[in-house]
Amino acid sequence: MSTEKLYEIFLSSEGICTDSRKLFKGCLFFALKGENFDGNAYAAEALEKGAVAAVVSAGSGPGMIVVEDTLVALKELAAWHRAHVGGTGRLPVVGLTGTNGKTTTKELVRTALAAGLKVSATEGNLNNEIGVPLSVLAIKPGTEVAVIEMGASHPDDLKPLLAVSDPDFGLITNVGKAHLEGFGSFEGVKRAKGLLYDHLAAKGGTVLLNGDDPILSEMAAQRGLKPVLYGVKTQGCTVLAPSPEHPYLRIDKGGRIIHTHLVGSYNAPNVLAAIATAVLFGVPEEDAIKAIEAYVPSNNRSEMARTARNTVIEDFYNANPSSMAAALENFASVEAPKKSVLLGDMRELGPDSVQEHIAVVKRLMGMTLSGVFLVGEEFGKAMGEIDVPASWCWFKTSDGLADYLSGNPIDGEVLLVKGSRGIRMEKVLPQL
Predict the structure, then answer these.
(1) Which of 242, 271, 294 is the last residue of a domain?
(2) Which of 263, 294, 325 delimits the end of a domain?
(3) Is 254 left (phi over 0), alpha (psi -120 to 50) or beta?
């Protein structure tokens, strides 16, 4: 079946479903295959539960559309939708990637744009080879701008995502040390993220650029891109110091104090990026700012929670050397009589892993902290290389730390909880 014919079926459906556990009546089911699952086994069930059709790579029968590769078919369908969903005009798409802050920035950009436009944006962090096509196919007629988040952990990961989303505008939050095991080196990270700039340069697109970031500025200049600039220094803004009375990020932008519900000065460029994007699309700046001020994060990224005993900065959705350094720098500036850190390993760093964890340990030794609690084998190796204070605590797992805290509670402190997703630092929250 041609993509055009499949698109007609898609338009008659209630949307795409790729998960047999989330089937809904009227969906178009794609039987995707992975290392541990085969959606073909659930195609008949999908049809029985009301799917309009099932796109499969194996099987036959009424309602089944057989293709060679269901993921390829999904991507081709998404690319067709991206090209046609704008009707007579072309729908503008903002492509967003980066090492840190992608999802937070995407949510801020969505929020700011929605102050004046009908916006479609990636839900959650559906930013991979399956998530991006699903995000594109979720764009509804009448949408005025779409924001598509794209993730990458290997050199060419962005290529198929760019082919599907075909952005006209682009924003790289930053380029740092993450997924070094997949990229091979920091230069590999730059080349991989730079594919977004390559795409924009080839089609005469527009880049939104943090003018304070020398790496991104050089990358954009090398490709001849003329950017729309934002940035704390670039725009003459001031990030106000956090305090117990004002723990959240505040930015003085030309005398207008932007009050957010985000934690960390490292989020200031993300806020300014969102405002700049909204203004570029014609949303009044004050409307965009008010929308951002009302935004409350709910994804374990830069959240602050007040428990019965402590104030907890929850930043444990992911961790890498650059995001860890930014979090610790911000935490050092927090004014509080007692502060402790609970940190989990940073994953996927390859041969540099131990040295990067040693760097974090050294940074902690230079901070004034009431307690240091480290979790994971990599931090254990790092602590074996350095003489750390005897008061520091190490645990192999977050469960071990949670058990310890149940018998040795922390009271009256400001706490930073951070670690890679696989360490599951959220397990310690009930004890805080």
Answers:
(1) 294
(2) 294
(3) left
For residue 202, the tally of other CB atoms under 10 A from its CB is 10
Give the amino acid at 32: L
8-state DSSP, 394: E
Give pLDDT tens digits for 328-370. 988 888 888 899 999 999 988 888 899 999 999 999 999 999 9
- SS3 of 305, please? strand
Whole-model pTM: value is 0.81
Number of domains in the chain: 3
Query: Contact at 8 Å (CB) between 362 and 387?
Result: no
Q: Tell the residue number behind the tokens 């998960």, with chain if given.
A: 19
208 vs 273: CA distance, rounded Å = 7
The whole domain housing 242 covers 85-294
Asked whether residue 79 is assigned to any structural domain, the reply reads no
Whether 75 is in a domain gets the answer no
pLDDT digits (tens, 9 = 90+) for 309-322: 998 988 877 788 88
Cβ proximity of 325 and 418 under 8 Å: no
Q: Tell whether 78 is covered by a domain.
A: no
**CATH number of domain containing 11:** 3.40.1390.10
- How far is the C-alpha of 171 from the C-alpha of 148, rounded, in Å? 10
CA 93 to the chain's CA centroid: 17
Q: What is the pLDDT of residues 198-231, one digit of tens each?
A: 999 999 999 999 999 999 999 999 999 989 999 9
User: How many other C-beta atoms can be found within 10 angstroms of the C-beta atom of residue 101?
Assistant: 24
